[in-house]
UniProtKB/TrEMBL annotation:
Binding site for heme: Y366
GO biological process, one term: response to oxidative stress
Class of the enzyme per the UniProt entry, highest EC level: oxidoreductase
Cofactor(s) it depends on: heme
Protein name, per record: Catalase
Recorded catalytic activity of this chain's protein: 2 H2O2 = O2 + 2 H2O
UniProt entry keywords in alphabetical sequence: Heme, Hydrogen peroxide, Iron, Metal-binding, Oxidoreductase, Peroxidase
InterPro entries associated with the record: Catalase, Catalase_AS, Catalase_clade2, Catalase_clade2_helical, Catalase_core, Catalase_haem_BS, Catalase_immune_responsive, Catalase_large_C
Species for this entry: Hypsibius exemplaris (Freshwater tardigrade)
EC number: 1.11.1.6
Any single Gene Ontology cellular-component annotation: cytosol
Amino acid sequence: MSLFGGKTNAGNAKVKALEPFRVHVQEDDELTTNQGLKIVDNQNSLRAGPRGPTLLEDFILREKITHFDHERIPERVVHARGAAAHGYFQVYESLAPLTRAKFLQDPSKITPVFVRFSTVGGSRGSADTVRDVRGFATKFYTEEGNFDLVGNNMPVFFIQDAIKFPDFVHSVKPEPHNEIPQASSAHDTLWDFVTQQTETTHMIMWLMSDRAIPRSYANMEGFGVHTFRLVNEDGKSRFVKFHWKPKLGVHSLVWDETQKLAGKNSDINRQDLWEQIEAGAFPEWELGLQIVEESDEMKFDFDLLDPTKLIPEELVPVKIVGKMVLNRNPDNYFAETEQVAFCVSNIVPGIDFTNDALMQGRLFSYLDTQLLRLGGPNFHEIPINQPICPFRINNQRDGLHRQAINVGKTNYDINSISKGLPKQSIAKRGYVSYAERIDANKIRERSATFDDHFSQATLFWLSMSPVEQDHIVKAFTFELSKVQEVIRQRMINQLQNVDNVLTQRVAHNLGLLPTEGPQPGFPKKVTPSPALSQMNTKKDSVATRKVAILAADGSDGKAISDMKKALEAAGCCVKVIASHMGQLKVSTGSQIEIDGTIPANPSILFDAVFIPGGKEGSINLQNCGAAVHYGLETYIHCKPIAAVGEGANYLAASRLITKGDTLPSGVLVSENDVVTNDFAGQFIKNIKQHRFFDRERIDSIPA
Ligand code: HDD
């Protein structure tokens, strides 16, 4: 390990391949210019006399300033804000019957991956917690070249045809005249677009749902969105949808919390990813496949080529085939996370595209955007983008910043001078596009099978639990309250095609009524898909959950350390929070180290709160406005709360519990000062639930 950072996890083949490019500063290293000249004075420029003008001659000053002036590259036009990590993928059993992709055939094979998560609309410096789709882009460094699965945390998309992408992105981005609002969809132009382009309706339901405000990247599902093809050794093709299923389940923040977080810690998601990996709690997902035989292509009531549609898991189950673990943070944000270039055209033998018109446009866009962003056609030579197998064995030459020194006299194919090298591969080894038969007229027309814009929006709505439906209604209300009334009204009218109850509830909140009826035949009758509801996700672990122990001088020290021990043993990250730093003077007379102050560690940074006993400690908490606010806010965000002994008086004084009454759900109180195993166990059980939504926002609570 070098003196200044550098990871101990030597890692997989890609992590090792990056080593020659890493710059480790050693103990006896001295400052140099980019040309290797040792610099003696890095504090003063070269001047004509100590009070005189700086000399043009100062090449050291000029090199330093020039480099600085050129340090920025264009941010991604979408998905500008991101965070990434290294890791590996491993298949559980050979998928040879389905695909000839080698990385999907050998369960003993470790395939390095680099995964970048992102928001879509905001700039590089925008907040992590905005209501938005999250990008989930995975670069598999396989022995047959890089495979980029560039997906999102939602299984559908806003539009059906790439020709609409610039319009859609323009509408959701800040408005062009004043660049307001940053990273928010709650503005006129997006909703104007949505109400003109009804194919967006299904995705808008997802965007208004809790999926758009994930608790962490490790709590998100990922989706390849499009229907792809898997092709096996015999050339047999099947349709496939890719899924990532998170080991820790799908969990979200609540809206009030996300907005406060945007100010209190706008890096919450990237920081969480970073810290979990540093702590060895490696985020993990399983890869799932929905396979559809070619003969079944037309058997659905939607078109497999329509990216605004999903295949309900109840119709085609998700077959779990492998796992991905992220176990190493990047060494350098710019070199890796910023310069990584995902291209949907990065594909390997055994995987192929379909005629989804959105994907077809993406096949052009990604390569094109990297040319601008990374400054020329050699971006594949940037270390993070290099495959781990032989690459650039071809006759492409030159271009800005070319790294490879191609040796030899020939740079064309077919040549005789260099024995015809490099030779084309043979079909068995190389990439062969699936020979799909196309017999068609060249037209600008969309298939009628893409016409139903609402049924799956209805499917999504009816698959939600009452709590999730409430959140969707509130999200529509919030967003639409910020747009012109004429657009608001159009959206109310549009929602009628999805569901009458949804329409009535949103309309009521906005003080409107529908002014025209739904389209004929809508809303359709659909069978709900329980797999779409987050309420049905895994709730079997507290790993990585953050718990605050809210304490004050005079709190019970033993309860603090017993609860901390029990929670940490279960996998939680625990912090003792108080109104000051340093040592807590606990009731036993001993001292406990405080991990952070209340203002710097607000309740929104935690998943649960514990209040220890100790009379003086409890009174101190009751007399501290910030501490009272802490409990109230934890309460309205539906998080588990536990208190022992006198700690319960703090909850009672904040009117969160009334002595003698039934406790609100998710609130645990013991009269005894002692943290018993049973009590800690019950608290842990509550933390697994994540939230107790039946005590959703109580308007009388001032937090
Ligand atoms: Fe895209 C970036 C995902 C449609 C054009 N897209 C980008 C990223 C993700 C997605 C995760 C960030 C990659 C990274 O971390 O560097 N995009 C999607 C999904 C789509 C989709 C799941 C629909 C199913 N995208 C889409 C269309 C187009 C683009 C239809 C253009 C026709 N996307 C881009 C882009 C970006 C990009 C402009 C911006 C930066 C980049 O590519 O590298 O080319």
